[in-house]
Amino acid sequence: MANIGVFVCWCGSNIAQTVDVVAVAKAASEFKDVVYSVDYKYMCSSPGQNMMIDAIKQHNLDGVVIASCSPRMHESTFRSAAVLAGFNPYMVEMANLREHCSWVHDNREEATKKAIELVRMIVAKVARNAPLNKIYVPVTKRALVIGGGIAGIQAALDIANGGVEVIMVEKEPSIGGHMSQLDETFPTLDCSQCILTPRMVEVATHKNITLYAYSEVDSVEGFVGNFKVKIKRKAKCVIEELCTGCGLCTQKCPVGKKGEVMNEFEVGMAPRPAIYIPFPQAVPNIPVIDRENCTYFKTGKCGVCAKVCVAKAIDFNQKDEIVEEEVGAIIVATGYDLYPKDSYGEYGYGKFKDVISGLEFERMVSASGPTKGKVLRPSNGKPPKNVVFIKCVGSRDEKHGISYCSKICCMYTAKHAMLLHHKCPGAKAYIFYMDIRATGKGYEEFVKRAMEEEGAVYIRGRVSRIYKRKDHLVVVGADTLTGKPVEVEADLVVLATAIIAKDGADKLAQILKISYDTHNFYNEAHPKLRPVETNTAGIFLAGCCQAPKDIPDSVSQGSAAASKALALFSKKELEREPLISRVNEEFCVGCLACQPVCPYNAIEEKEIRDRKGNLIKKVAHINEGLCMGCGACAVTCRSGCIILEGFTNNQIFEQINTFENLISKFEPTPEETVAKK
Amino acid sequence: MEDIINIARELIKRDDIEAIIGYEKGRAPFQTVPFFARTPEDCDKLIMNSLCVNNLVSYINQFSGKVAIFVKPCDAKALVGLLQEHQIEREKLHIIGINCQGALNPKKLRNAIKGRMVKDWSINGDKIKVYYESGEEEFNIKDFLLDKCPACDTRTPPIYDELLGDEIKTADLPELLARVKELEKLPAAEKQQYWNEHFERCLRCYACVKICPLCYCERCFVENASPQWIDKSNNLKSNKAFHLIRAYHLAGRCIDCGECDRACPMDIPLRELNLKMRKSVEEHFNYVPGKDIDVPPPLSTFKKEDPQDFIR
Amino acid sequence: MEEKSAKTDWEPRIVGFVCNWCTYAGADLAGTSRLKYPPNVRLIRLPCTGAIDPLFIVKAFQSGADAVLVSGCHPNDCHYTSGNYHARRKLTVFKDLLEFTGLDPKRFWMSWISASEGQKFASFMEEIVTETKKLGPLKGYNN
Lengths: 677, 312, 143
Known about the structure:
Strand order of the largest sheet of chain B: 2-1-3-4-8
Radius of gyration of chain A: 33 Å
CATH superfamily of the largest domain in chain A: FAD/NAD(P)-binding domain
Number of helices of chain B: 10
Number of strands of chain B: 8
Order of helices and strands of chain B: HEEHEHEHEEEEHHHHHH
Distance between the termini of chain A: 32 Å
CATH topology of the largest domain in chain A: FAD/NAD(P)-binding domain
Number of domains of chain A: 4
Largest sheet of chain A: 5 strands, parallel
Structural class of chain A: alpha/beta
Oligomer: heterotrimer
């Protein structure tokens, strides 16, 4: 039998004005299991809370009902107070007499009747409450960062500087990501490499960071605080410990001289050998052998690199290797890809040499790029006079491309126009745009500068087609502001192609068990309030893998994700709410109907064996490190083998059961009695 | 008949097969009963005809090793459901598919012989011959089919390792959901009256639950005492609750074997409730149970674009 | 079976199963905004609409509810990402069953009411009570 105490709050006059609180307390005292019932002006005040604490001790209460405001307001207040009294906080429940009663009704009699019923419902529930204890999950204080672009670098450095070990996995031979390909960055025009390279070096030299470049995540098991990750380290065929990074092998390699292998870093605008370092500032500065294109691997002959290597660092027999790491948190920062080149036939990409992508232009203007920083027409190597930039290629185009805005194109196109002006004096930039979205700090001013000081001509409208006329490209479009057709004779056309999710993003999401949207961008747990968390506890997002964003936003997210991970690591054990689902293994038949409804992948199949190890049966098992207590599994279980703590079937049943008897009347409290209080 | 005996004899010789699940002739007239053949000699008792109505899949888990099982389309659909819901391991099954052109309703037959003593019976093609103490009589099978059979679109099992005969395609079937649609047209009050009258008669014997190949829970919701959602007493209030939840629990799962209808001693039209659930799931989620093992059951999944006309 | 109540003092009883994050909060907002609605509704708070079992609904009707409401977060807004979608599927078929067995469709309501829709909550309660009054007391579930 329960000993329940009911505390009816006046909330000053907020409740008492419409609800006869004295009558409610009196009615409550007659409910089954209620041993103590009282009304008080402000339950949430310090004396109010003390009153509850004293009553718990004095009346040996094992359940408490606070009949006051919304539990969303003060449930934590009263539960915390209960803890101070050494009382299990989950034995405290609230009846909402303010937001759901006194504030929404005028008639005192009706409101009081309703209040009595609301209290009775919660009393019935509390009688079925069970004391619950917080769940503690041990935490491995190490983080895995997947992706070594600027977002991942930022996250890794922040965590490492917080004193926690970081494993960074990068798919490519070098970290740096897309940012390392950029020349100057908007809106300040500071050199991308100059600000990025020190960070890359810091990653490589940081005592808390282990870098696995040229590696991929193979599998992830476990849950928050306790992930087991298998990482595939692709064979570089170069012994890292021996290599000095002198680069002689890359110079002597006979492959690539005729342009048969193109450098991915240069977006295919320059060849590269089969043993290569993607770019001079690469971290780690160790070459890898591209086994697909290496003559030795293709024919068994050659081996020039091995012959010239003084350090004897070449090892053709190296195999892919799987390393296992245990981590407590994972930050996903896998970045983006660009909209495929050949998708816009009408723009002649791939057909006309002088139609290039924004990233190609970026490499062109880079001092270390294939043209040594000169803007040249790929068709004839001469500087262009008229350059047309087309924005929203793929973006905001539900018919042909994707529905969303790629966010950075407005800004980098303005930047490109400026860079053209700087590097190719006399050349004219024409920019076809749909809208100009310059919403960051200093962004609007930057675009204005491109227009007013750097002579970029902005034409509002879409380009319908591009065709060749003699040596030039004719760009045909419409100026929607004047309503007239426009034709520009261009020497070079630059397409601001859309940002799309990284190839294989969906596959990685399945490995990580995180959700992704229709565009394969990873879903954040809440679009506003939990922007860097995923729905899988312990896995966080940073950078463009979540949605297109620019460098400052990627860096902010990297730091935000790092702070989430550090918060996780700040405690010895992870404390979790015990309001989660549990399986009654005695009756579970293992149909696993519950498994697909769990949004957190917290349900797995568990084998029950006898002492000899014989399989008795298979049942559903809920991982308490992952369950968030939504209760979807409990409802899906036909035989009621899953209960949701805090909202068990017994609790709900008793609440509903109270409706069988209506509160038909109550004794109004005489005004003198109220006045005395 | 020889086909199945030969197949069975071959199978039972295999080391990996513990038993063969099929039917043998029962003692009562027009009765067949589940039979487990463990030796080659046992196999000679096996029969397969349109009076083999029991759903055999419920017996699979009585065996720890691998079993071979004869399945009609109804049994096979139930198998799909059980495999989908992790109740049976596919590796432990050898499935012999049997085509079906409709099964006989023994009750209807017994009515037709008007109380005469039956000595024996035999089935040949689409005719059943009944031998009385004196004389014999022949009936057309198609006049005595179970209610579920005429409209059934699955004449070949959806899953099998070997199939006896060739796949059968169906055409020009009567509408399966005709009765459901008819009931749907009734005004609410008449619907309530129709069902309440049926529910009131329910004995709560749970024969429908026990016979259902997909009601395999160790503890049915109706037996749960904590809380006791459904009063054990036999009255309209609790009978109705039981039947509503029973039908709901089969939504997207019932493969329309009709065994519940056959088992109900009070002739409560349980199949009509099940078919309503089938219609609902098919209409809203484009799903028909008993076809595909690799998809999650429809009430364990969702689509963002699921209909929600009734939601405000 | 269902007759209009001759008695004038009969008041319908409405049970609402609502999610903690959206509709319960929407009802809180109705309160904070001092919006008025009839006192016939009793809410039972659950974490999510995905945690609402059809058994609750049957039990509510058995226990004297004249109408039942299930309400939670709009699609895409579920605190647990997909609970409302699961609820929508389950209750779509269950609603069909209730209607098939003779429940008036106006006795089972489902809605998406967000934490910011205090006004929608209040006017929806008004509507449900008005509609239920038209139908009279529920029969055939608890008697």
